[in-house]
Amino acid sequence: MNAKQFTISILEEARADENRTPFTPDQIKTLITNFPNIKISVQPSKKRCFKDEEYYKAGAKLDEDITNSNIIFGIKEIDISKIIENKTYLFFSHTSKVPNGNFQNSQDPAIIYKKNLLREVLKKNVTLIDYENIRDKSKETYRYLGFGRFAGIVGCYNTLNLYLKLNKKKLLPRAFEINSYEKIKKLIAKQNFNKLKILQTGRGNVAKGSMEILKLANIKQISIKNYLNKKYDEAVFCNISTREYIERIDGKNFSYEDLILNPQAYKSKIKNYLFDTDILITGHYWDSKFPKFFSPNQINEFKKLKIIGDITCDINGAIPTTIRSTTIENPYYSIDVNSMKEIDLEKKGIAVMAVDNLPSELPCDSSEEFGNSLILEVLPYLINKDDGRIKRATTASNGKFCSSFTYLKEFIK
């Protein structure tokens, strides 16, 4: 967007449990210094992790009315009733991945919300740019933005705390109570998790964040070969990528590109690891077309598996025990392995951690990292010349879906 003078705004988040922000007050100072043609408006919020006064002192205008804004930044799902016509919005809309199958009559609130959001975007001529789709052009399509690292950090911390809870050991303070990653590092480094075997899936930012915590907790990383074949008298973990837990049914070589194109030709082989695993922590990318990790009927085969920290939190997705997401206030539940019904946490079963907004437990730290990426990787291409990343991430504009997202027409019928 080229303009002599324009205004960007920060939305008040609609979700009651959302306290993150696209930009911190210090980053607002940086923006005003580096982009003198920008005016910044912030909707007041009592939930946001930084106080309104801090934004005011940083040079932003506090104003409920953001109708004069050119670009509006949020974090999660926005209030559909407050969408302003002819504006550019950036937030995580989670609309590019729609479910397979018959969703036309779905009563799922998340599906209903996505449909109504997209209909309103088209009706009001909104330009919708989804953070999730701001990626580079490489084969890996690297995401420039995300809270994945902090999802991994908090998710792993919560999962280890669940282990302490089930084993009636002294619990660590919750991440949201501490609200400081530096303090968490010091706390977790004092722990000793004896003879624990942990399997970590994924190789992206979520998994990397989780493994930061595992290493800080003095849990030793070992090779796949050693994980499968050796016994240890200390806590260990192993990290596996997609090619190490999914294989072709016909025995041919794995190819990620082929998996995307022909998912029906693949099956999961993760059970080979789970026979001798105490805790499974997920940090993988999963698509509904991909094979599930295991079936409910197989769970009884994994005699040692007691805890699943499902950071990816795909409901009824790769992990059949994730039958619902959990909240920051109540992060855990248990599943009876025979009935697959939810039971009391203290009863025997598989305990699940499935919080769906983990970075909100460390909102200041995670917002700072996110805002730095916005300033470096997004704003210059929004306000100066786009190298293609903004165009590729634009879901809708001028009252219609952009070319890469025309499939959403069917979704909103």
Helix segment tally: 15
Largest sheet: 8 strands, mixed
Structural class: alpha/beta
- Estimate the strand proportion: 15-25%
Cα(first) to Cα(last) distance is: 32 Å
Considering the chains and any ligands shown, give keywords for the structure.
413 residues, 8-stranded mixed β-sheet, alpha/beta, 15 helices
Structural notes for this entry:
With 413 residues, the chain is α/β, with parallel strands linked by helices. Helices cover 30% and strands 16% of the residues. It has 15 helices and 18 strands. The protein has helices spanning 25-34, 52-58, 109-123, 148-166, 175-178, 181-188, 205-216, 224-229, 242-245, 256-261, 271-274, 363-377, 379-383, 389-393, 408-411, and strands at residues 6-10, 38-42, 61-62, 71-73, 88-91, 127-130, 197-201, 220-221, 236-240, 246-248, 266-268, 279-282, 307-310, 332-335, 342-343, 350-353, 394-397, 400-401. Strands 3-2-1-4-5-6-17-18 form an eight-stranded mixed β-sheet, with helices on both faces. A hairpin with a 2-residue loop joins strand 17 and strand 18 (400-401). The longest helix has 19 residues, at 148-166. It is globular, with a radius of gyration of 22 Å. The relative contact order is 0.15. The model has no long low-confidence stretch (mean pLDDT 93).
Q: How would the blueprint of this fold be written?
A:
Blueprint: E1 6-10, H1 25-34, E2 38-42, H2 52-58, E3 61-62, E4 71-73, E5 88-91, H3 109-123, E6 127-130, H4 148-166, H5 175-178, H6 181-188, E7 197-201, H7 205-216, E8 220-221, H8 224-229, E9 236-240, H9 242-245, E10 246-248, H10 256-261, E11 266-268, H11 271-274, E12 279-282, E13 307-310, E14 332-335, E15 342-343, E16 350-353, H12 363-377, H13 379-383, H14 389-393, E17 394-397, E18 400-401, H15 408-411
